[in-house]
Specification:
A hairpin with a 2-residue loop joins strand 10 and strand 11 (251-253). The chain is an alpha+beta fold. It has a single domain (5-32, 44-262), classed as Cyclic phosphodiesterase (Cyclic Phosphodiesterase, Chain: A). The mean pLDDT is 94. Helices cover 37% and strands 25% of the residues. Strands 3, 5, 10, 11 and 12 form a five-stranded antiparallel sheet that branches. Strands 4-8-7-6-9 form a five-stranded antiparallel sheet. Strands 1-2 form a two-stranded antiparallel sheet. It has helices at residues 5-15, 18-24, 64-80, 105-114, 118-136, 167-181, 184-188, 215-229, and strands at 34-37, 41-44, 49-53, 87-89, 98-104, 144-153, 157-164, 200-206, 235-238, 240-248, 251-253, 260-262.
């Protein structure tokens, strides 16, 4: 399902262009991952599940420079859109790159209700997959580097896209995803690949879209902000994959014995 290297690059570049913003902004909608009230503001809604991600910012010192810059970009984005009150900004400590979506919300709840041992079986399966990757690619020591490419608009969120430094950095992540999604035991647990890879770090989710929302102005503001960041050379080192659980979109956590996979960092 995932693109080849050149197709991926072309697709991501197109997503950061004004024409893409203009198209996407016609379809944006409020995210159900947050609830809003005048008294309590925006609160993360229950949305449980499991995922494979890089360590979130709060646990990732290797990418501290990139995350500092992304937080600055997030603040500029919120400030630009403050009049529209359009964005729920995610906490910095939750910033991460998703390497492979697994299971969430109703599918996760149903799986757990049908199988009391579901979570244990899932965690054991991911541990086995990580070990398979290490056995298949035992000598990969070169760091996997991806780079900031620009702001992107998704149906319910805004984030920044990442592109690989070269074809090798891309293939290592695609090979990892293939091992995950083609694993028969994981498929038997009801997990399948729903999306092709669009490597991104989410900065915020959309609130209620006002009836009088000026979409053209939004596109202009977003493009202006994007232009100011295009000369930034921001690199993201994918040094570790971790199985993480989440109860909502504001916090991703794990136990010490849950599966991890270390990629090269030096």
């Amino acid at each position: 399902m995932d693109d080849n290297y050149q197709t991926y690059l072309n697709r991501i570049v197109r997503m950061t262009l004004p024409q893409a913003y203009q198209n996407q902004v016609q379809h944006i909608q409020e995210s159900t991952k947050f609830h809003h009230s005048p008294s309590q503001g925006s609160q993360a809604a229950p949305f449980p599940g499991y995922t494979i991600i890089t360590p979130p910012q709060g646990d990732d010192s290797i990418n501290s420079l990139l995350y500092t810059q992304l937080h600055k970009l997030q603040c500029q984005l919120v400030e630009l859109l403050c009049d529209a009150n359009l964005i729920v900004a995610l906490p910095l400590a939750s910033f991460h790159l998703t390497l492979a979506d697994l299971i969430w919300d109703s599918a996760y709840k149903n799986a757990c209700s049908l199988n009391p041992n579901y979570e244990v079986e899932l965690r054991d399966c991911i541990q086995s997959i990580f070990q398979q990757y290490q056995n298949k690619y035992p000598h990969l020591q070169t760091p996997i580097i991806w780079r900031y490419s620009g702001l992107i608009v998704m149906p319910r969120a805004i984030g920044v896209a990442l592109v690989p430094r070269n074809a090798s950095d891309y293939e290592q992540i695609i090979n990892f995803r293939r091992l995950v999604y083609q694993n028969s035991q994981l498929i038997a647990l009801g997990i399948e690949q729903h999306y092709h890879l669009t490597a991104h770090i989410t900065l915020g989710y959309f609130r209620t879209i006002p009836a009088n929302f000026n979409r053209d102005r939004f596109v202009d503001l977003l493009d202006q902000l994007n232009q100011t960041w295009l000369d930034q050379t921001l690199e993201f080192t994918i040094h570790r994959a971790e199985l993480r659980k989440f109860d909502d979109m504001s916090h991703f956590y794990r136990q010490p014995d849950w599966a991890t996979l270390d990629f090269g960092t030096e």
